[in-house]
Amino acid sequence: MFSNKRIAGFALAAASAVLLVPAAQAKKPVATFASEDDIFLALRDASRNGDAARAAELAGRLGNYAMPSYVDYFRLRPRIISAPEQEIRDFLSRYEGSAIADRLRNDWLLELGRARNWMLFDEQYPQFVLNDDTQVKCYALMSKALKGQNVADDARGVLVNPQNYGEACPALITTLVQANQFTLDDVWAQVRLIADSGFAGTIKRLAPVTEASETTLMQALDKPDAVLARGPGGNRASHEVFIVALGRSAKNNPSRAVDALVAGAERLNEREREHAWAQIALQTSMKLAPDAIVYWHRTNGAPLSNDAYQWKARTALRAGEWKLVKSTIEAMPASLRNDPAWIYWLGRAHLAEGDQETARKLFSSITDQTNFYGQLALEELGKKISIPQRAEPVTPEELAPMADNAGFRRALKFFDLNMRFEGYREWNWELRKMNERQHLAAAEYARQKNVLDRMVNTSDRTKTEVDFTQRFPTPFRDVMAAATEKLGLDMAWVYGLIRQESRFILNARSHVGASGLMQVMPATAQFVARKIGLSGYSQQQMNDLGTNITLGTNYLNMVLHDLEGSQAMATAAYNAGPGRPRAWRSTLSRAVEGAIFAESIPFTETRDYVKKVLSNATYYAALFENKPQSLKSRLGMVAPKGFVPSELP
């Protein structure tokens, strides 16, 4: 028998041993969740973070969850590099034909490409339905090139957006150089394109095929003025590095870049000089500098990037040089030239030259498109914008399959969980299989479920079976009418803005913190609340319908009055802040059409936003007033501050 003293000693030792157990070996407490939905959301986060152990543990708690395909996907995704091939094949087989299976195949193809496992890649790639991943496309072309196929032209069509290149696209470029399918001209065109986008890591990957050192290339990006101070050098590589440095320097100091080019021009050949001027012209165009048009003239017929072609055309539009507009659009790659924007402006250029027949053909080719440029083209043909005849209403028989659609049910579940990305993927995956009547039925189902953004986007896809009550809904019309009537504000314009801002999602929140139906920024909301005397306002009220509309409409009214009643400029101000449209207007040397002002907005998001909002507003006005409308009148003219109205053309 042990004495009490010895027992006490053993107890003390045991307690000490517990204290000495390393933290890593201590058993972690099991997290508690309020519901299976909360577990599922935690599983999604663990999978995104690459935490395979956590994902497996959480997935194990969801054995009977309503969406087993996503539970399995989130469990497998963090292990896709190490998972047995058969496990991946089993998943693809089990969920064949589903959106999530196509997503996993996308993930797997990326890993197979990185591993250069071309046998499996080539087997799986034809089964990738969406085929919307630039890196996967680059790997597919790389696989073909390694088998001796000439893919240079296809590669040039894919290699246009460096932000999507990843590892795959630089590897493709290297492969094509080694296969003698890409020349140094191709390589340096890519380096200039990537430098414009600022992706230093991607340029590093290309250094071995440029004949320039990585150090020199990085200096052109990070310390361009030091490169310019040395001048162009004496060989092709040093000339190209100098040209890259010109573009980087011109971002901050165009005059310095121009001086450096003028000083070193004689050491460059004619084509190099054209590329050099294009580098400077692109940067000065995006600053709306008046000298940009001079620099574009010095590029002559040099091949340009897609961005450069568009900015050359925009600069010519601002300057009223229709001949240059025409020649620039005609030089664009077909994929760009066939965009409705450039079809419209090419038609306008022909019209300016007196070639009415060609202009009418171009305009007529896009008047069936219910977008900004389709509307403008319609007006060029002497017509106004009206609401097309409504398709026959959806029948109960057409609607029933939508309610039974498993993909739509998953999408609605995701919307309830605020997993909008996954919800959009499921919804859009189902739309691929549907005809126009089914699209209308799906849109009507979305209306019944109060998912108005899906109603709008789904109905927007139809060409002949059209229902504009789906495309341009007017929820909360009593609240909106009261708010706009009080301010004397155009309700069609406000609805057009909301359609673009939030697609009628009440709790929408942008990546920069804008909230609610009218996507008002927190600081803006506070400012407007003070200005209109809204006492007791707090940020928590921003998703309240009445408060959001009150603050949003009052702010819109403020910027409209601040910008002399121009809806084009006020729309830009709502998106980019009121100071920027004033700055953009100040660079004009003459009055320009609102459409030209919109087309030449330097911010891509704002440029797209202004066009869509005013296009929307024109259709809303046609619905409200039940008569044809003019988008051109809504756009008006934009002139420099103090411009004499009598001088308007």
Strand composition percent: under 5%
Distance between the termini: 112 Å
**What is the alpha-carbon Rg in Å?**
29 Å
Tell me the helix content. Answer: 55-70%
CATH architecture of the domain at 477-647: Orthogonal Bundle
Enumerate how many helices there are, as a single number: 39
Just give the CATH class of the domain at 477-647: Mainly Alpha
What do the pLDDT scores average to? 93
CATH topology of the domain at 477-647: Lysozyme
Number of strands: 2
Instruction: Give the strand line-up of the largest sheet.
Output: 1-2
What does this structure look like?
The protein is mainly α and 649 residues long. Among the domains are: 1-79, no CATH class; 396-466; 477-647, Lysozyme. 64% of the residues lie in helices and 1% in strands. The protein has 39 helices and two strands. The longest helix has 22 residues, at 604-625. It is globular and about 75 Å long.
